[in-house]
Amino acid sequence: MAARKLSITGGRLIDPAQGIDRIADVLISNGKIVGIAEFSSDNVHDGYEVIDAAGMIVSPGFVDLHTHLRDPGQEWKETISTGTRAAAHGGFTTVCAMPNTDPVQDSASVVLDVIRRSAADGVVRVLPIGAVSVGQHGKQLAPMGELADAGVIGFSDDGNPVVDANLMRQALAYSVEVGLPIINHAEDKKIGAGGVMSAGLVATRLGLAGVPSEAETAMVTRDLQLAELTGARLHIPHISTVGSIAALRAAKDRGVDVTAEVTPHHLTLNDEWVFGLKGVIPAQVGRESYDTNTKVNPPLRSRADVDAVIEALSEGLIDIIATDHAPHAETDKVCTYDEAAHGINVLETAFSSVFELVGNSKISLSRLIESLTAGPAKILNRDLGSLKQGFSADVAIIDPNSKWVVNPKEFASKSANSPLSGVELTGRVVRTIYQGETVFDMVTSANSGARA
Amino acid sequence: MTNPTTTTEASSSTGSAPAQVPAPDEVDATSVVRKHLLDLDDLSVAEITELLDSAEGMLEITGRDIRKTPALRGKTIITMFFENSTRTRVSFEQAGKILGADVINVTASASSVSKGESLLNTVKTLQAMPIDALVIRHPHSGAPYFVSNHTDASVINAGDGTHAHPTQSLLDLFTVRNHVGDITGKKIAIVGDVLYSRVARSDILAFQKMGAEVTVSCPNTLLPDEWKLGSTLGDETGFGGLKLACNVDEAVDSADVVMTLRIQQERQDAGHLPSLREYSDRWGINAKRLALANDGALLMHPGPMNEGVEISSEVAHGAQSVVEEQVRNGVAVRMAVLYKLCAPGKSTRIGGGDEAQAQN
Q1: Partner-chain contact A207 B270, CB within 8 Å
Q2: Which domain holds residue B217?
Q3: What's the whole-number mean pLDDT along residues B107-135?
Q4: Residue B139: exposed, middle, or buried by beta-carbon count in 10 A (0-12, 13-18, 19+)?
Q5: N or C: which end of chain B has fewer CB within 10 A?
Q6: How many Cβ contacts (< 8 angstroms) between chains A and B?
Q7: Domain A5-58+392-451 classification at class level
Q8: A334–B42 CB contact, under 8 Å
Q9: pLDDT at B27
Q10: Do B161 and A338 touch (CB under 8 A)?
Q11: Given this model, what pLDDT does residue B360 score?
């Protein structure tokens, strides 16, 4: 790693793990954090190359607990190379790769291959997640011990919920020994059979089959009971309903070892976006309706659900933000809504979209950054997500005033499936440093995007 | 293909319609150049009325010995049916042919769709040929909207998933209007599979737009979750004023029109119903139930009927049934739609004795 020394000077340093929010300098050497120094305008740190961060927010690099890199198996949608570059563009220096690859990450050999290729082709840290069951088929437990030894940070059959309640019970119980969480896609698929968006008046108006929010709540409730029974660690991905949040609160009050994440899109978009007018309700269904880039699982929910997840994140009941970055090719989205693949391309818009919540005073900036840094690092139980001395020098530098219009064609991601296309956002990651090296710099990047 | 026309051109196409000064809203309607018919929610009352008026002339043409006009001569219409259909497909084909258009029928099973070609590529392929209108039926809601974004041709929705079936609604309006005159204030009872029925959705919108009071009745399993039995929907639903009857007798009571919808075996298989027998017992329209409606109430069904399930044979073919009339009117209404979309700027009315003026 880099032998050179860097000083990021004069920025507003926010490091929730250390309770820091002040103008200060970050000193980096050999890819590690040396320490935090007081800023003064004539202060020159001897031998350090200076990055001027005046007017910027300086944050620990973001940690994403839920990323689909599509590699191996669907390299036309994303690869380790493009996916980690997309992460860098979004300020993420660690991404946890979901195992629904082909082959599935259900054996040490596949996991070790992902780790090896990530070190070679990736520009940020990739931590694999192992499957709960062999082939993600929900029949037989994957070799969780072997997977843990290979380096996975948790287990998930993401996309496929573990339907069999007894298998879920056994998975939770078995995971206690290795101490890693089970991340179960919470959806009772029977309740909303065939549904392609959230049930409600928008779905009814569009004639699209709806999934009631209770499909999620029912599964969350079951999983919480089983986590309580086994004493295991449960992590609830992309929580999105009022009912799930109530169940989560009750379980945390009882002392269940549970954490939860929410996505940027469930914090900022609702089911009215399916009308295709960026959240405006039209007088009649129009040709822009059925926006397939809004199709995602769990589906975009009601306004009440959005308000509830924001509040729960703000108070810390929902622990973290995770992207569920789900790249899809154009052919997966230029089709009817029923045919379209589920998933949104999130990494490069994640921070900017949720930063709006700070502007609207719905969440504090330090809590927002905690949910992207110290929060996920705590779930991973690793020395990440902070600028503490000796930690990897992973940093995101943010221009809080930069206005930009999302143009998915300019994404570093291989895919462009974003419902935010054409939307103006405020606040943007302008530079990302991973292990002391700049892996994204908007000034020099060819993919810098349109600046308004 | 696209033939934008101005208000001036539209009104100056001479002497076709009866030589009376049109009401202001009619002027508004005829000046609208409509490219697509995707649902009725974006049509004004005047525009719907204009189409129904136009269909009257078309109906006269369909009754002639020689059923042919050259109104759409040289136009090409493609029907693309991705679902099975008898009446709608034949109806569109006949409508186009009577108007003199060339009609080409594409069915999914006999096209490149069966080779895995995507809807986008199928449309792009057809689009590369000179065509004026695409009539599409598709099992996915919104498919005609999607298609309309990828073709220069006019797109006509012939039924999309569980969303809409606008020409069915136009023919239902037309049929009712021919019997009762003004639809305003009339009570329409729709009985059947509301959750999965595109006919129900479009008919609710259409009859409400024309001033009727619409009530539906069906098993609670076949209503959207947010629609509560015994309530009246608010405007935020897009179906404001729709009454959700607690039972079928309440819906049919004092109705001017009773419309019953096809119930499918698969609803029983998916657990929506205990059995078709119980459905028939509790929601089937029979002579006893029909007697609760107003004297002379119309009995309608969009077809195909399951006689003995949602409708008893006795009433299906009884004096109050207008089921076959609906089919006959379907041709006239679809002629009106094709003429409106494919011959913009022309008179909106042909037939009914005005044939001479209609021939360009």
Answers
A1: no
A2: 166-324
A3: 87
A4: middle
A5: C
A6: 87
A7: mainly beta
A8: no
A9: 46
A10: yes
A11: 38
User: Contacts of residue B201 in chain A, CB cutoff 8 Å?
Assistant: 207
Asked if residue B62 and residue B207 are part of one domain, the reply reads: no
- Ramachandran region, residue A304 (left: φ > 0; alpha: ψ -120 to 50; beta: rest): alpha
Model confidence pLDDT, tens digit, residues A115-166: 999 999 999 999 999 999 999 999 999 999 999 999 999 999 998 999 999 9
Residues B125 and B33 in one domain: yes
How far does the CA of residue A190 sit from the closest CA of chain B (Å)? 11
A451, pLDDT greater than 90: no
* Residue-level pLDDT at B236: 92
- For the domain made up of A61-380, give the CATH fold: TIM Barrel (3.20.20)
Shortest alpha-carbon distance between residue A73 and chain B (Å): 22
Residues of A in contact with B136 (CB under 8 A): none
What chain B residue is nearest to A286 in terms of C-alpha separation? B145
pLDDT class of A228 with cuts at 50, 70, 90: very high
Task: Measure the CA–CA gap between A76 and A414, rounded to whole angstroms.
Answer: 8
Give the residue with greater pLDDT, B25 vs B53. B53
Structural domains in chain B (count): 2
In a domain, residue B1? The reply is no
A101 vs A341: CA distance, rounded Å: 15
CB-nearest to B119 from A208, A289, A336 is A336
User: Could you tell me the residue ranges of all domains in chain A?
Assistant: 5-58+392-451, 61-380
Residue B2 in any domain: the answer is: no
- Does residue B290 lie within any of the structural domains? yes
Do B133 and B235 sit in the same domain of this protein? no
The model's pLDDT over A76-102, given as tens digits with 9 standing for 90+, comes to: 999 999 999 999 999 999 999 999 999
| Residue A253 annotated among the catalytic residues of the structure | no
Q: Which of B143, B238, B270 sits opposite A205 (nearest CB)?
A: B238
pTM of the predicted protein model: 0.92
- CATH number for the domain that contains residue B78: 3.40.50.1370
Residue A338: its chain B contacts at CB < 8 A? Answer: 139-141, 161
Distance to chain A for B305, nearest Cα, Å? 22
pLDDT at B28: 52
DSSP secondary structure letters along B50-112: HHHHHHHHHHHHHTSSS----TTTT-EEEEEESS--SHHHHHHHHHHHHTT-EEEEEEGGGSG
- Give the tens place of pLDDT for each residue, A305-321: 999 999 999 999 999 99
For residue B18, pLDDT beyond 50: no
Which residue of A lies nearest to B161 if distances are taken between CA atoms? A207
State how far residue B144 is from chain A, nearest Cα, in angstroms.
9
Which one is catalytic: A106, A188, A324, A394? A324
Residue B114 lies in a domain: yes
> String of b and e for B177-202 (b: at least 16 CB within 10 Å)?
bbebeebeebbbbbbbbbbbbbbbbb
Positive or negative, the CA dihedral B250, B251, B257, B258 is negative
Average pLDDT, chain A: 95
